Amino acid sequence: RKEVEQDPGPFNVPEGATVAFNCTYSNSASQSFFWYRQDCRKEPKLLMSVYSSGNEDGRFTAQLNRASQYISLLIRDSKLSDSATYLCVVVDSGGGADGLTFGKGTHLIIQP
Amino acid sequence: DAGVIQSPRHEVTEMGQEVTLRCKPISGHDYLFWYRQTMMRGLELLIYFNNNVPIDDSGMPEDRFSAKMPNASFSTLKIQPSEPRDSAVYFCASSLGSPSRAPREPLHFGNGTRLTVT
Q1: pLDDT (tens digit, 9 = 90+) per residue, B51-98?
Q2: Nearest residue of B to residue A96 by CA position?
Q3: Is the Cβ of B49 closer than 8 Å to some Cβ of chain A?
Q4: Residue A107, Cβ neighbours under 10 Å: how many?
C-alpha cells in the first residue's frame, strides 16, 4: 500500500523565522512530487513542484532526497499569511490518478 | 476565468436521505476527480474520469456511492442512502491532461461541498 507520511503539527512559528518540514514516501518508484497548500476551510492549491535538483520559488525551497525517500519544504522569513496546511503529493510511475497520493498535511501557524 | 464550480457549498441532511453533489470542471479540462476529505483520513480519491469516461472507481466506499459525467462540463456524485459516516468535505478537481504523466499538470480544486449527515 502506498504511504505518504507527514508530521501533522501544528508547527507554531514566530513571524520572520525559518521553518522546514518533511514528507516521507514508501514507494521508491515514485516519480514526481508536489507541495499543495490548503487554507482553513478552503480547497488545496498547488504551491510548487519538487524537482530532483531542488528548486526555489521566492521564500520557498523544495528539496528531494531519493536515497532517504523524503521531500522537504523550507519557508524563509515566514509571514502571517503562510499559516495554512501544507499537503505533500507523491506521483508514482504507474500513471493515472491512482498514482497520485496525498499526505494528510502539516499544519503551520505563524504567530505575530 | 471561472475555476471548478461545485454546488451546494453546504449540505445538511438526515441519515437515509439521498444526496447529490454537483461539479462543473474548468472548460477544456479532460480529467475530473472526486475527492473526500476528513480529519482522520485526509484527502481520498473516490473516482476519476477522463473524457467523461470513468477510469477508476476503486476509491468509492461502497455501492451507496455513484458518480456520473454525462458531458464534459458536468459531473455528479450521489450518495443513497446517506449515513453519518459520510460526513466530510467533498472536493471536485479537474486537470488538463493527467496529473501523473508528464508534463504533470496540477489539479484545480473546487471550493468543496461540506456534507453533514445527522
Answers
A1: 999 998 989 988 999 999 999 999 999 999 999 999 999 999 999 988
A2: B100
A3: no
A4: 19
Strands (E) in B1-118, as ranges, are 5-7, 10-13, 19-24, 31-38, 42-50, 53-56, 65-71, 74-79, 88-95, 108-109, 113-117
Cα(B8)–Cα(B64) distance, integer angstroms: 20
pLDDT recorded at residue B104: 73
How crowded is residue A23: how many other Cβ atoms within 10 Å of its Cβ? 24
Cell of B39: 480529519
Q: How many CB atoms lie within 10 A of CB A41?
A: 9
Task: Check CB contact of B33 with chain A, cutoff 8 Å.
Answer: yes
Distance from CA of A19 to the nearest CA of B (A): 23
Angle at B46 between CA B42 and CA B50, to 5 degrees: 130
